[in-house]
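In response to reviewer comment 3 from the previous cycle, which asked for concrete evidence that the modeling workflow produces usable outputs, we include below a single protein chain processed end to end. The sequence was submitted unchanged, and the resulting structure tokens are shown without manual editing.
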Amino acid sequence: MNLSQIELLRVLQETNLNLSKAAEKMHIVQSAVSRQLHLFEDELGSPLFERQGKKLIGMTTLGLRIMDEVAIINRAKTNIQNLAADYLDSNQGILHIATTHTQAKYFLPVPIQRFREKYPGVKIYMAQSSPEQLIAQLHTRKADIAICTEKVDQETDLVIENCYEWHHALVVPQQHPLSEGEITLERLASFPILTYSFGFTGRSNIESAFKNKGLDLDIALAASDTDVIKTYVRLGMGVGLITAMAYDPKADWDLVARDLSHLIPSSKTKIAYLKHNYLPLYSQHFIAELLLAAKDIKC
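The workflow returned the following structure tokens.
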């Protein structure tokens, strides 16, 4: 048994048991992949894969158990590499951030700019997607850190840090009936609502607020992008419920923003990363920049 065989098992899992793709990733010929697998299985005395001819179609019960151990070995390997890289030069590396559009546009510019000034040698790759996909990227090591509001609390193998608290705001065109007067959930419920897709940017808190009052939400449009919501508010399709930080008095001069903190529970944006993962020093310092920037947020 050797580390190359362990790595081969990981790559096979990553490529859905495709021998040719695994061989390509390992930079070896396909026949060498098959030989290494047979040697490994012979040493263990039991098959790890279900086969149909030469094709791998699944894993045996033993194979599935072993893959759990392979994940631990791979994590240790990555941690060793990151530790060594820190020892040689903690100012070089790649930081993979997974986040939503809202965080990327309205929260991250300041901390990223500060971080770049201190760590110009660190490349930053940012992936934007849904909270579920962000968490999946952490588990598959395509992201080092995830920054989002929804879903992360449901995970048990993540380190989770509260970053900042925020609330929603109503945006409507000038002269709209809701641009003045007392705002209540009953008044809001009488208009078509434009807000975030389920699972994005505190949508669950919006749902809970109306449900607790026994009110139905007429969602005329749901989107993951705040700018899309504001665009359709301007077209008169309904009233927008967005994160307060996304309202820019200069850019959104034609819209009126109303505070909804008294009606919809506040939301918390969180920072998440895998437990047992060694974060390079620059990643730890990036988290410190996030927490520092969070102190300046008033929303």
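DSSP finds eleven helices and twelve strands in the chain. We consider this sufficient to address the reviewer's concern, and the full set will be provided in the supplementary archive.
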